[in-house]
Request: fold
Amino acid sequence: MPSNKLYQWIINLVMLAFSAFCIFPFLVLISASFTDDMEITRNGYSFIPKDISFAAYGYLLNDAANIARAYGITILITLIGTVAGLILIALLAYPLSRKEMPFRNVLAFYVFFTMLFNGGLVPTYLVYTNMFDVKNTIWALIIPGLLLNGFYVILMRTFFSTSIPGAIIESAYIDGAKELRIFTSIVLPLSTPVLATIGLFLTIGYWNDWFNGLIYVTDKQYYSLQNLLNRILLDVQFLQNSQDGISSELAANIPLKSMRMAMAAIGAIPIIAAYPFFQKYFIKGITVGAVKG
Amino acid sequence: MQAQPKQATATGLRFKLKELKKYRALMLMAIPGMLYLLINNYLPMFGVVIAFKDVNFAKGIWGSDWIGFKNFEYLFKTSDAFIITRNTILYNLVFIILGTSISISLAILLNEIKNRFLSRFNQSLILLPHLISMVIVGYLVLAFLDGNSGFMNKTILPMFGLSEVSWYSETKYWPYILTIVHIWKGVGYSCVIYLASIIGIDSEYYEAATIDGANRWQQIWNITIPLIIPVITILTLLSIGRIFYSDFGLFYQVPLNTGVLMPVTNTIDTYVYRALINLGDIGMSSAAGMYQAVVGFVLIIVANYVVKKRNSDNALF
Reply:
């Protein structure tokens, strides 16, 4: 068919246009972070920098200690949260996947109901600040909301019950293996796809979380990267808008605009750089997530 | 395994207890996760009583006085109640309709691409925004809309000979801006879900259609779309169940928490947050939160019921 080639061309063009729309803002951001601040003030943010300048990054070096600490906090909570979350989710999902488990349906409903109804922000906030006192601790960034959710448990349960043959478990049982042993040396090794998928979801959730920091953390010492970015976005705004003589003079010496973009680039680049390596799992994970539990 | 004979209740219970002993290791495994859900999800559910109390920290939450529906009365007397409800629902409706149609279209296009590399390449690029936190999206939007140096004002608008716009003080543009940002960030994710279900369609259908002389367009319309309706239904159902909730980051970070824009950016979620953190009004914000949770719960039950009536395979539960 002669029109087939044309048809392919048109589809490719439309898709490439949409893809360009998706990455264009990142390009403007990165380009702006390398642009001289005066240049931005004169001509605005642009796609291609005319005067390349590293001043913004240089300025951020002055604040390197804070940024490094925020990175450290983010890496720490991402590691702890992902590992602990995976363990908790797998431990809860596995019994739910065993058909002979007593009270299995009650437990499944206990997990499922959390997906339908919640107490809302205020009671959650009060539980964590009044009963557990997590305010301004590292736990505030790890525990509330992110560690485990019903959806991941159900996803993993579905994987266990559909992909792990009951016969394997039964024969291990006959060979005298105990439940925990069966779980760690048979079930988990057979479940790497779902572990990778949910691990990835958890990692992205922790790396990008700023909400827990916003509501539970006021102490600078515990600012995560996203949290720091959030405060800088609002603080710089504040400096810039301030009519106060002192702070506008201070603001005049800082490459405000390019620095802000450099800061955002620092926050975005790690995950963009890591993306090609986990892209395969990520796409697979979304697909697994679409399957009804 | 064991055929469970009809027994008297007492024996049945003893049987259960024996079972319990046999499976105690499994039970123990489930405990940490269940404890977490208890703390993170169930304890706050009891906390909804706060909405019916005049919270006084000196007396403690349990000791505070009951005031019935007073908090709800205050809430619904303000003009905020109407605005936040309207905004939450309207934005979600637009997001559901536009988001679903755009991601299905993209998924169909991606499926039509014969070159595997190009298909993968496009998939990666449209998923990229999904990986970025809303804080960074806030920065990206600022780079475009900043009043005196944004990309829109300095590059795009001059190209069309238009004058500069003060984006962060004009409410009329924000419904469009927020919709575009939402689509930009989320469409790749749902597109991949649809693509996965399209790839799963048996190729025999298409072969048969080609023999019958159906063209590409007819095949999409009569085979692809009808066969992905179950997935469309489930995803739409999920979004309808969440129609009383909004993406807090989108409505708080992207407009940079700007006061002037609130008539078009305030949703129930941002309202609850502001009432709690900025005003310290625990009573009103928990009333708003409970309003949201209860209506949301009813909506998901109703939506699921309607779908179940029509086709039980497509229902969530």
User: Anything to note?
Assistant: The two ends of chain B are 27 Å apart (CA to CA). Chain B touches chain A through 99 residues (CB under 8 Å). The first helix of chain B runs from residue 9 to 22.
